[in-house]
Amino acid sequence: MVSASRRLRGRGALFIFLTTLPALAIITIFTLYPIAFALWSSFSFYDLTNPEKTGFAGITNYAGALQTTGFQHSVEASIVFVIASFFLVVGLALGSALLLNEKFRGVKYLQVIVLLPWAIPIVVAGLMWRWIYDSNYGILNFALQSLGVIPSYQAWLTQANPAMALLIVAYAWSEFPVSTLLILAGLQSVPKELYEAAVVDGARAFARFRRVTLMPPQSSPITSIVTSSPSTMLVELVH
Amino acid sequence: MGESERVKRGVRTRRIFLYLFAVLLALWVLFPIVWTVLTSLRIEAEVRTVPPSVTPTTINNYWLLVDFAHASKLFVTSAIYFVPTIAAEMPDALRNSTIIGAAIVAINLTAGSLAAYTFSRLKFRGRWPLFLYAIASRLLPGVAVIIPFYVIIRTFGLLDTTLAVFLIHAAYTLPFSIWVLYTYLFTVPTDIEESALVDGYSRFETLRKVVFPVIWPGLVAVAIFSFMFSYNEFFFAQLLTTTAASHTVPVVVAGIGGELTTPISLVAASGIVAMIPPVVIFVIFRRRIMSGLASGAVK
């Protein structure tokens, strides 16, 4: 132990340098400078007809952005989108993970099938769903009309509320596999003894689920996964 | 007797519900994919029909994506079958995306795991701030930094190269990988490492012979997550690439699908082709991926 820590001190500095430098170098180039650049230019003014003429603009750019009606509207839309898709994704993922955690024939195949949307770039998923929602030949329109829900084909993506709802469904389809995987990993790392102890103590099924399955803090990564970059698909589908 | 009968019936009901939900889940996941496959196997006039009909009639859409120069001469006449020239880039895009993805996996497994090891095992001044700095950069929203990214890449003279896409994907995946492996290393006991050091192994030997074999589930998780990020990423790739030399799969598919005149069946085929590399990886490494993630590497 003594000799180990002495070795550490002797060659430690070089080791630390060699092991952290590559990662930190890449991260620094694409982090520090971009932040500084974005901050600096957000407080500057530019004249597109006269590139030499730049200077300090104070907060006018921010005020300008906030006053744009389009900006306010898209902030509202983003908030609705993020909250609704968050709940849909977490709900879907939790249900799927609980199902995949059971033992039944074919569950191994189902585990792979559920991963498939993850293998589809979100741009591609956007195009796939856009075709399903298509106003003239989409299968959604056909299904709804056959069932008698709508009298005639609708242009879903040009109507604000249906467009948002359908967008959220498509996004949830694309994003829930990763969350499912993470929750499933969490479920499988809950020690069996905990469940047995809970049964012995007379806890009912729902209480077992709430106290043993959900309480360990392993569901926390969902938050970071779910809220990541919805913008690409938003653009692809709406456009 | 009545008690055991009731238990048996309860088990059977549970079983039925399990299979019901399993079928629903499979349908929900597979339907859009199956629908896309069916769409891709028809010519344009047969796709745009009411009611939709689904019998496969042609593989020409795939032929176009695999061998554009040859196939387009054979059956594309611009009047009825407008095809954007970017469709010719599909083989290049598959190559670019796979190379970038493999390089991203490599950099995360090397630079990422080394940094995570040092941050978790070695005590040195500035360790905590440096670690926070390394992982906090992941919080940057892409849209806010896209212009500076462009400027940096242009300054390096790397516009329209796979290296540029690689660098940005590396900057985005490394913080996550360092964080995952750092957390994972805390769950691994340090006694063996320490006795290896006492026995005269160097740090690098200890890493290779003792640490890596123990943390393989974490390495699997890091590899698969960073590959999928890189393979799916569209925003930066779209901005930094302009030709087949560096276009990635999402960029080419978006290019094909972005033209309103493109046959939807060709768009569908390109979407299916885009799925192939990750699906092949899932199928080959399924066991490793599932057990790697299930052992709690990502928390």
**Looking at CATH, which topology of chain A would you report?**
MetI-like fold
How many β strands of chain A by DSSP? 2
Tally of discrete structural domains of chain B: 2
Strand order of the largest sheet of chain A: 1-2
CATH architecture field of the largest domain in chain B: Orthogonal Bundle
Largest sheet of chain B: none
Largest interface: A-B, 78 and 90 residues
Overall geometric form of chain A: flat
Task: Describe the global form of chain B.
Answer: flat
CATH superfamily of chain A: MetI-like
Description:
- The complex is a heterodimer of chains A (239) and B (299).
- Chain A is mainly alpha-helical and 239 residues long.
- Chain A has one domain (69-238): MetI-like fold.
- Chain A contains 12 helices and 2 strands; from the N terminus they run H-H-E-E-H-H-H-H-H-H-H-H-H-H.
- Chain A has a two-stranded antiparallel ribbon.
- The longest helix of chain A is centred in the middle third of the chain and has 32 residues, at 69-100.
- Chain A starts with a helix and ends with a helix.
- Mean pLDDT of chain A is 74; it is low at 1-8 and 215-239.
- The mean pLDDT of chain B is 85.
- Chain B has 2 domains: 2-40; 85-294, MetI-like (MetI-like fold), CATH 1.10.3720.
- Helix content of chain B is 75%, strand content 0%.
- Chain B has 299 residues and is mainly alpha-helical.
- The radius of gyration of chain B is 25 Å and the shape is flat.
- Chain B contains 14 helices and no strands.
- Chain B has helices at residues 2-40, 44-47, 60-66, 68-75, 90-121, 127-136, 142-155, 162-186, 191-198, 203-214, 216-232, 235-240, 249-258, 264-294.
- Classes of the chains: A mainly alpha (239), B mainly alpha (299).
